[in-house]
């Protein structure tokens, strides 16, 4: 009878250290990774308390549980501390991992730096993901965030097909408070990527805005008017006309996107859509918003959507005199207790099925290996590492 031979899985070069560690564990520790610099350091802290904010972190301080999401040049993983007290090791976080070579190749250095700084500046807002720490190693940049276990609002919208007006009003009110904070209390931060996929739900059903990769602090010029920026970024269905025209845009683009979002909440689909993004752009700049006969949409809801989605941004609700305060006074939000919204006095209309603090069942399953593994050479280190010194 032939003996059974255990097969070990080769560990390819370029894997993230957390991924390599998982493969080594699967191999019973029989193969070491090819790059020694990628080995998480052996830590022997016993039950010494571990505070993630008390010192400079390394990837070896964490154990990867699973991937929560992937993007063009980033991966977000659910992680827990690898050491500390039992209470420390039971905590979970979301770790955003950015490969330096991809950040450079895709010309995202400024965006990544803005993201880290803005997340730090807005970390105390109740409806924005909470920045915990940032750090880096030879190949990667890391942003450690609170874990929001409920998954994307997009998933629930597809499940429900559409939200009733009370549900849409609840989520829209929390978004209004986010935009008020970003635009009016944080030096004119334009978020620039408002969409259901970037809105997660916490365990009580409240919104948490994530992914600040396109966010930018614009500020005001000498005359007090918002500074314009010209970068074409965002998701086609939610782009404001001025972004498409490339004539310069401001924080007003976020109010346009909120109008599109409310429409999608109430109907289940955005008002402008086509398989070809160029056709979407044409619809946005040329066509008015048309409301369906079914489902019924109230006059107040139609009005606030039209006022948000006004092509002339000087007349756009949220961007006109009075700012967010004017938005709060709109009839669509009649009866909303804004103080109660801010302090989360009521649970959200959808309560995610969270079984325990690290439960990830509300997120899709993603491949655990990155497709791109370009080497971060010494020439790149010399040329670009200065830009990553804040991590």
UniProtKB/TrEMBL annotation:
Transmembrane segments: none
Similarity comment text for this entry: Belongs to the protein kinase superfamily.
EC primary class: transferase
Biased composition (Low complexity): 30-41
Species name: Dichotomopilus funicola
Source taxon at top rank: Eukaryota
Protein name in the entry: cAMP-dependent protein kinase
GO molecular function: ATP binding; cAMP-dependent protein kinase activity
Record's keyword terms, sorted: ATP-binding, Kinase, Nucleotide-binding, Serine/threonine-protein kinase, Transferase
